[in-house]
């Protein structure tokens, strides 16, 4: 909207940024989680199941197909154990420095590692879906940068960093008390960290 400029633009941008990142993103993430485990629409309306990850979710910076391919395709299958690329087991789980290393690793090479994992486990369809979603989102952001780069930064790129940080923080805290001696046992927790 080229007629909105100056302080009005920044005010509306700040309002959108706050509502999107701190008001709606949590419930939308929960909805993505639920619809990853159980489709929203019956098979005869299956095409409508693409609306959430491909149309709605990118406005809350969930790149299309990313959540499903990571959460269902790898994380649940591997359960935070050795083959789970988002496993917290190799990190000191009561250390901010260790968390920052964990997040940095995920942010820098997480997409590549997930694609490699999915190919290694013969889940090529999920790998294609993930790669297509990442490329489509990246192409959209690149195109939008030519239209209005500050808006693209505030609506898509900065929130993408925030979302991926929050997602990894959620995974980190969920697995903070896993017993290192028996990490595959979800009923056995270690309530002190060393």
From TrEMBL:
It comes from the Bacteria. Pfam families: FA_desaturase. PANTHER family: FATTY ACID DESATURASE DOMAIN-CONTAINING PROTEIN-RELATED, ORF. Residues 25-183 form the Fatty acid desaturase domain. The keyword Disulfide bond does not apply. InterPro entries: FA_desaturase_dom (IPR005804). Keywords: Membrane, Transmembrane, Transmembrane helix. This is Fatty acid desaturase. The chain crosses the membrane at residues 96-115, 135-162.
